[in-house]
Amino acid sequence: MELSMSGGALRTFSRCVTCLARIGSDLVFQAYPDKLELHTLNSSRSAFASVSLTRDFFDHFHLPADAYADAAPSSTPLQCSVLLKSVLAVLRTPTSAIDRLNASLPNPQASKLEFVIHCVSGRKKTHRISCSAESDVQTLALDRNGFPSRLAIRPRDLTRLLSNFQSSLQELTVIATEPAARLPGVDDGTGGKAVELLSYIDPTKDDYDSRLHTQLWIDPAEEFLEYEHAGDPVDVTFGVKELKAFLTFCEGCEVDILLFYQKAGEPVLLAPRFGFDDGSSSNFDVTLVLATMLVSQLNDGSVPQQPPTSAHHAEEPRAAAAAPSPVPENVSNHTRIWSELSANF
Hints:
The protein is α+β, with helices and mostly antiparallel strands. It has two domains: 2-132, Proliferating Cell Nuclear Antigen, CATH 3.70.10; 149-290, Proliferating Cell Nuclear Antigen (Box), CATH 3.70.10. 16% of the residues lie in helices and 33% in strands. The strands form three sheets. A nine-stranded antiparallel β-sheet has the order 6-2-3-4-18-17-16-10-14. Strands 5-1-7-8-9 form a five-stranded antiparallel β-sheet. The protein has a five-stranded antiparallel β-sheet with strand order 15-11-12-13-19. It starts with a strand and ends with a strand. The model is unreliable at 183-188, 301-335 and 341-345 (pLDDT under 50). One of its GO terms (cellular component) is checkpoint clamp complex. Residues 300-331 are annotated as: Disordered. Belongs to the rad9 family.
């Protein structure tokens, strides 16, 4: 395998590797005649990330016919596994100082993956990274059309919504309902707000972070670029760390985020949204698959409910210390925020 990249492709490749490094520790290269795929899996096996780069992504891409030996090229790729931190070390040189980057793997039995950096200054740096004998990362393919629900959001809007939660939050729950499911004529303060984001509270932990409940009621028409959901309410709870890594990648590439989901216990899939098309015209694609909690939070009594909005109830004394958090100026009026401390001090 031989490949070369420069300019915008090199910057995108660097962002891809950085994103994958925030998710897993091993990077698997799989080379096909028409594309190169990069895969990683986190240590808890709850997040799988994949990057697909077509031949057109590279300045030069060559895969010898004998690289597949006797295997069918369409089914058995040329594969090697390396440590992500080693690839990050190669990309430590600023992309603005790189004229082009070459990578090569002579054959499937090669023990090292070679990177050659040709700098703008004329210097040449050669890095050889040892390949692992076997990889624990398995490929995973999910059909996006198989998910009944989806939403699309701008990275900056998702960043703003997540800023309402404590920075140490590890899992986030998304509850989706039909926008038209709200009863007409009933004003409960959530009219039109068909999506809820709330912090998942681990019942086995007893610290400050586990006492702080934060919940957002969101109007999809205001916050999302797309929103599709029909039928009964569903919820999915997944890790925040990997979500933020994907968010940073999409923000750097200036693309929107697509989130596909089904129900609790089923995986969610995140992918870039390339304008108004399905990404078929793009020469790269990235997918992030996250495992979700098996137990639904919809009937969990620990989930905080929205406070009453009538004046009568607002004047009643409350047993627990609870008060609505101040809403920052940059938060839309269509997004309602509520925080609650679940313990007395």
